[in-house]
């Protein structure tokens, strides 16, 4: 996705880190860089707006359920594996041994 114009920050980088931006999980200097990109790139701004709306909808509809601590730990462990580039097991790592 790109508007066809060159940008200081490439569209693919912005889209790869969109959720970090949405969740305010990036340094301010990177947030400023992404914000500048959105101001000049309407396709990325549109994608940002869509993802932001989906996040708000999910939070409104599902944000009130408590997540069991063990499930949260398993999911976060899988996210860490994916982010580190390690191989992710084919089986469902969120299933308990009785469920597998």
List the helices and strands and how they pair.
Layout lengths: L10 H6 L1 H5 L5 H13 L1 H21 L6 H16 L16
Helix pairs in contact: 3-4
Which key terms come to mind for this protein?
100 residues, mainly alpha, 5 helices
Query: Unreliable segments (pLDDT under 50, ≥5 consecutive)?
Result: none
Rounded to the nearest angstrom, the distance between the terminal CA atoms is: 39 Å
Order of helices and strands: HHHHH
Number of helices: 5
Secondary-structure-derived class: mainly alpha
Kindly provide the radius of gyration, computed on alpha-carbon positions and rounded to a whole number of angstroms. 17 Å
**Taking all residues together, what is the mean pLDDT?**
83
Estimated share of beta-strand residues? under 5%
Helix content: 55-70%
Largest sheet: none
Shape call: globular
How many domains, as an integer?
1
How many individual β-strands? Answer: 0
InterPro entries: Anit_sigma_mycothiol_RsrA, Znf_put
Protein name: Anti-sigma factor
Organism: Streptomyces cellostaticus
Pfam families: zf-HC2
